[in-house]
Design a protein that fits this description.
alpha/beta, Rossmann fold, 2 domains, 4-stranded parallel β-sheet, 15 helices, 14% strand, binds iron/sulfur cluster
Amino acid sequence: MKIGIPRALLYFYYGPFWESFFKRLGLNVVISDSTNKAIINRGIKVAVPEICVPIKILAGHYLTLAQQNVDYIFVPRMVSIRKRQFFCPKFMGLPDMVKHSLNFKEKILTCDVVSDNSNISNYRNYLPLAEKLGKTKKDIKIAAQEAEKDWLQFRKFTQLGYPAPKAYELMVKGLNPVKINPKPGQIRIGLLGYVYNMYDPYISLGIFDILQENNVHVTTFDMFSENELRNVTGNMSKVLFWTFSNYLLEAGLHLFNSDQVDGIIHLTAFGCGPDSFLGKLFELESEKKGIPFMTVRVDEHTGENHLVTRVEAFTDMLKRSKAV
Ligand code: SF4
């Protein structure tokens, strides 16, 4: 049996767990290719124009996998990974959106994912898949336990400062890398964005490479542990409703209030509701702390040259102010 996993949305955070889980169940796993023009065009054709770019991209990946002879495509309903907080509604409604707006609805493989922390490996989440996959409760439990080890390894590597795709590569190769620290004199930038914006090369337009070519040390929210993030807003009377938005808020507040960065870039996708709140909060914090801040908003039409020019100008400004 072949299971397709779209290389979109939380694939860039939970993909190592899901891939390992299905493989350990003895199934063939097909991950869709990196987002390209054909994939996004497929998504744009079927999605409502106002929806955020990452969801259009997910639709494109789903349709691409459906044409690749897979038996099922995994589209979980991400509900909650923190007490009294939830995922953005687009995640919670995703299986329904796919079922009602895309063809190939018979291929959807879904289950609700609920946890009280970011580790979503509790096998009970995946028991609803057992019947379709022809597996027993015990099979699901063992596969989830083994896959958890892979995911924890992957997360350990991201917390050492490796961007998710590199951390995944290190995990697969079974390497034991050292922590990445800023080199003397290097500009340090906090890049605040959802994993599917930062690590999808089509949306991010290779922002990591551009920053690295400009000799920048980059810190992202997933380079912090969950506890480090949670501590930032632990005493706040009110936070945002959406967990991943809170992760970004927490990473942002931490970076604005520490001496770890020279500037901060908020990478956001056109059509994102939660980011309209976040962006304002970052702007206010930037004014308060005097740390330079820039918003980069991307959509399916954004050109690479535009991004390179803005990132280089921001980096040059930071270099000059550091030299003064
Ligand atoms: S958080 Fe924003 S970008 Fe992510 S799915 Fe929700 S609306 Fe889209």
